[in-house]
Design goal:
This protein is α/β, with parallel strands linked by helices. The chain has 14 helices and twelve strands.
């Protein structure tokens, strides 16, 4: 059998591959501190677990519409209306199997062969391959040193083939949160060049300091019409295994994604839908506990990395830090750095090259403080061994 060329060109997700390698070593008896995965180490809220069990026991686990249950779509619309300050309706929502599924559905619906899509770097590892699979050409736009958007670089990246741009705020891997002014400039840039905006807002509620969370939909009516929001349950509600995300945008776009998914994947997970609806309609107290713990870990990691001599852009959101290792590792090869750190000290991290920014490494603090402290100690030992 000959594998389709588009599929054959897709590499395994580097974050998943590194997480699997760390778990493989742990299974052999190695003491591994795994700081690769973007998965909260908290249980989902009680209201979520209760709703999931009730759905199973109540016999409500059946096929749903491809766009998701109308009750959940309305709950998502209400949630976005509250948190983004702009009115949404259920026909502007399509529920998907995950945030990743939502992203791929949008790109397959918007990108035609040869279209260029600007990726504001650093960018999550799957953006590049999803754009390519849709037939487009991903164009990375380098950030400022603090990992914020470089608008001169953005202006220079536009060509007649540019059709859209993708941004992620709070950002994975850097934790950078776009300011209101920066989002306004992005929105005006998109208007000037007639581009759509794919805004990955999966970490939108995980913001620790600075301004309240903002989205381009809040800038103007034009920006709202150009923006497609992707969000989901995994990060905010620690619902990674429930596999529920959503697309919010114009009814024409969300309807296209629903039609596509009706043929490719069918209806989203019924248990996840019921559980996510419960989460959206109840502001669970567990979320504040999780946010406070992440903030404490964030501050500890930032202070510790700076003490080790690693220049680290201060993360304002998500649960990652993205220190620069170029001055501490010959050539700044982040993949080689991560390989050596894992093999010698048993600490698993993700190279910045996976996100389009070489010379940096991503550490996730979605793990216990004890493991973070041990990981930092081992990292310090590793850095000292390189002197």
């Amino acid at each position: 059998m000959k594998i389709n060329e588009r599929v054959d060109r897709i590499p395994l997700s580097q974050t998943l591959a590194l997480d699997a390698r760390a778990k493989e070593l742990a299974a052999t008896g190695r003491d591994i501190i795994n700081m690769t995965a973007g998965e909260p180490d908290f249980d989902s809220p009680e209201i979520v677990r209760t709703a999931a069990k009730a759905a199973i026991d109540g016999g409500r686990i059946r096929y749903t519409p491809a766009a998701g249950r109308i009750q959940l779509r309305q709950a998502v619309a209400d949630y976005l209306s509250r948190t983004r300050g702009v009115a949404f309706s259920a026909d502007q929502i399509t529920v998907c199997h995950s945030g990743k599924h939502a992203l791929s559905g949008v790109l397959l619906s918007l990108v035609s062969d040869g279209d260029e899509v600007l990726l504001l770097l650093p960018a999550w590892v799957s953006y590049v391959e999803q754009v390519r699979f849709a037939g487009g050409d991903p164009v990375g736009v380098a950030p400022r040193p603090d990992m914020g958007p470089d608008f001169e670089a953005l202006d220079a990246a536009v060509t007649p083939r540019t059709r859209g741009l993708m941004l992620n705020s709070p950002n994975n891997p850097s934790g950078y949160v776009y300011s209101k002014e920066e989002l306004a400039r992005v929105a005006e840039f998109a208007r000037e060049h007639d581009l759509w905006i794919l805004s990955d807002e999966i970490y939108g509620r995980l913001v620790y300091d600075g301004e309240p969370y903002q989205s381009t939909v809040q800038h103007s009516e034009d920006a709202r019409e150009r923006t497609v929001i992707v969000d989901g349950a995994s990060k905010t509600y620690a619902m990674t295994g429930y596999r529920i995300g959503f697309v919010a945008g114009s009814p024409a776009l969300t309807g296209a994604v629903a039609r596509l998914h009706s043929q490719l994947t069918g209806s989203p997970n019924a248990v996840g839908q019921e559980a996510f609806e419960a989460a959206l309609r109840t502001d669970a107290s567990e979320l504040d506990v999780m946010l406070k713990a992440f903030d404490q870990r964030r501050q500890y990691m930032l202070e510790s990395l700076v003490e080790l001599g690693l220049r680290t852009p201060a993360p304002q959101g998500a649960f990652y830090v993205f220190p620069e290792i170029a001055g501490h590792w010959s050539g700044g090869d982040s993949s080689a750095f991560c390989d050596a750190l894992l093999e010698s000290e048993g600490v698993a991290a993700v190279p910045g090259s996976a996100f389009g920014v070489e010379g940096h490494v991503r550490f996730s603090y979605a793990t216990s403080m004890d493991k973070i402290k041990e990981g930092i100690e081992r990292l310090g030992r590793f850095l000292n061994s390189q002197k």
